[in-house]
Amino acid sequence: MKNNIHAHVPYSRLAEHLDYAVANRINPEVFFPAEALDHLIWEELSSLAGAIHSAGLKTTIHAPFLDLNPGAVDPSIRAASHHRIQQVMKAAELLHPEVIVVHPGYDDLHYGDNRLVWLKNSIDFWQEFVPKARDLGTILAVENIFEKEPSTIKMLLDAVDDPCFRHCFDIGHWNLFTTVTLEEWFGELGGYIAESHIHDNHGQCDEHLPVGEGGIDFTQFFPLLNRHAPDAVWTVEAHSTEHLQRAMKNIKNHI
Fold first, then answer.
1. CB 100 within 8 A of CB 58
2. Is the pLDDT reported for residue 53 higher than 90?
3. Per-residue model confidence (pLDDT) at position 112
4. Is residue 214 within 8 Å of residue 176, measured between CB atoms?
5. Longest Cα pair distance anywhere in the chain, in angstroms?
6. For residue 1, is pLDDT > 70?
7. Which residues contact 54 (CB under 8 A, 6 or more apart)?
8. Backbone phi, then psi, for 210, in 5-degree steps?
9. What value does the CA radius of gyration of the chain take, rounded to a whole number of Å?
């Protein structure tokens, strides 16, 4: 089994799942929603981070995303997004994550003719945080959400142009919204992938099913991921321990 597999866990449940993660050698991807950041007890986070690192596990972070948009036209929304990422970067000083996953906040139906305005705002936003990521030894990775094809993310990555600013490819979101093939997506962004979120669905809603229990062709996906991004972090986005166990079992069939 690949030794760089992570699993999604909300910060509020990290303590209760830590023994399981250590026993099963599963690296946590810690999700910080806004409320967790606002009520964070830094001594508690320091203690949990110490236990994770002492056990020889690695970490990644998933930043908050609801209501946020780094490229927003409204400056007040950008300011709120900036505040949240600042909080995440402070948490990263303790967790030492390999990758920090962030959402772009873009969808073409919403922005339409404002696409380039969003892109400029987003470039300016992330250029401020990339030096901090470099200082922390981590990578900020922009996840595909509503993107039908990779051009907007590629323009953002090309413009920032830094090895500490990369792509998190979410195979489940791709299956929901794509108008391009997996080969086309990897052809454009494969070399930028620092992490992949791995879960399944039937193409209608974001079910977060274990690998092989939806409609995604993982016999095609894993070879592409290994070829284009052999060092990428694999994060299983399961919403229950049972689903995580089934996902880990099913992934073995593809390795």
1. no
2. yes
3. 86
4. no
5. 51
6. no
7. none
8. -60, 150
9. 17
Q: Output 252 or 172, whichever has higher pLDDT.
A: 172
DSSP H helical ranges for 69-212: 75-95, 108-111, 115-136, 151-160, 171-177, 182-189
Q: Please, what are the domains in the chain?
A: 5-252 (3.20.20.150)
Helix, strand, or coil (residue 40): coil
pLDDT digits (tens, 9 = 90+) for 187-235: 999 999 999 999 999 999 999 999 999 999 999 999 999 999 999 999 9
Q: Cα dihedral sign for 210, 216, 218, 221? A: negative
Global pTM value: 0.97
Query: Hunting for tokens 């993660």 — which residue is that?
Result: 21
Three-state DSSP at 30 gives strand
53-80 per-residue burial string, b: 16 or more CB within 10 A, e: under 16: eeeebbbbbbbbbeebbbbbeeeebbeb
Cα 207–208–211 angle (5° rounding)? 120
- Residue 121's identity, in one-letter code, is N
Task: Count each helix (H run) and each strand (E run) in the chain, helices first.
Answer: 11, 8
